[in-house]
Write a structure and sequence with these properties.
- The chain contains 6 helices and no strands.
- Helix content is about 45%, strand content about 0%.
- It has one domain.
Length: about 130
């Protein structure tokens, strides 16, 4: 194998690995998930906002949290209520989005996909930046 071809392979592998570890973007990755799955109830006036005070309308609203306090602890998804709610790590009556008969909320939706949950977890663990 010539040196030029070997260098090309090494660069290609490095670019692939680097793209896999690319930071999660709030604007490109997280906000679309929240808008598609949460905004109908957490829009500032819907059932979720009325009950908890939580709105996903803006990054600032998300970081503000609920009337009970923040739902995101940047750098710690396991300590963040938002992650725990969407990852089914709490009582099913309060899991989000509500998707089963035992849910306290009236609205129903589909649970987030594993990939969506993973993106939100990574975003929080990376510091929940407004990027």
């Amino acid at each position: 194998m010539n040196a030029c071809f070997r260098s090309l392979i090494i660069v290609s592998i490095a670019l692939f690995i680097g793209s896999c570890n690319k930071p999660v973007s709030f604007k490109k990755d997280i906000n679309p998930i929240l808008v598609a799955n949460c905004l109908s109830c957490h829009d500032g006036s819907g059932e979720g906002s009325s009950t908890s005070g939580f709105s996903v309308q803006t990054y600032a609203n998300i970081m503000k949290g609920t009337k009970f306090g923040p739902v995101i602890l940047p750098g710690s998804s396991e300590s963040s209520t938002l992650f725990r709610l969407i990852a089914h790590k709490v009582d099913e009556a309060i899991q989000m989005p509500p998707h089963h008969e035992g849910a306290q909320a009236e609205g129903r939706s589909e649970p987030l996909t594993e990939k969506q949950i993973e993106f939100i977890q990574r975003w929080i663990d990376e510091g929940a930046k407004d990027n």
